[in-house]
Amino acid sequence: MTGDKERVHLSGALQTMLATLYAKALDADLPEPILGDRYAKDVVEHIDYDWRKTTITAARSPAVTTRSAHFDAWTRRFLAVHPDAVVLHVGCGLDARFFRLRPGDGVDWYDVDYASVAELRRTLLPTDRRNHVVAASVTDPAWFDEIPTGRPTLMIGEGLTMYLTESDGLALLRRVVDHAPSGELQFDAFNWLGIRSQWSNAVVRRSGARLHWAINGPDDILAAVPGTRLLEWQRWFESESCSRLPPGYRALGAVMSQIPVVANMSQYHRYAF
Ligand SMILES: C[S@@+](CC[C@H](N)C(=O)[O-])C[C@H]1O[C@@H](n2cnc3c(N)ncnc32)[C@H](O)[C@@H]1O
Prior knowledge:
binds S-adenosylmethionine; 2 domains; Methyltransferase
């Protein structure tokens, strides 16, 4: 700590969660926020970091906040019908989804990220007896030992799959399906062009992270993860959360939608099992 601030030294995929956190903090100060996450703002104020390094500005924040708003909406839908759910929020970073959504008392929520991120969560975010922080790589099967079985289970992976290798990512999805009797897998993904053009993604480039797993559409998942059924598949700009974007962004979406491979660069996937 410096004064009352926490100093962070992260690199690679772990560092990218500072960019998504900062985007949410900047959004919270906008006159018309998309996500309106006061937790992000509070956490940013307690971290000693040169936030310019994230390359995020208020104008760029909707690229992150529309995604978070989207997964908030899908998560709410699952929790509305499964008040006894187990939630696996994998690659959670410092996202405060549990506190934004305040699930009911019957829900057990697991925020999973690398140990150094989990430690920051424990220091900087509020605690709740239903909100369990797991310090582990999501690819390590051992952490499943502490996850309850026999309950409807939701896995949310926001901004995660592209950092995993295909074999690690598919193994994670299969593990969730094998562990729980029923539930949903919700995650976003980049197609091959999103992975190949990673050099143009300033957040990824500045962090030194590498992107690996290209998911080109639902068939890639349905063929590889037995027991899954497609519920929804959307491109980023088709999401309801994008209706609140500034006009410049909406124009970009309209252009992107004309070229399928570009339109599919960033996608949202939702499966039942
Ligand atoms: C782009 S950030 C997204 C963070 C958060 N989901 C959000 O939207 O704000 C990527 C996150 O995935 C985490 N991550 C990447 N690979 C991981 C792995 N193998 N195990 C655990 N966490 C991982 C990183 O540490 C980081 O917190």
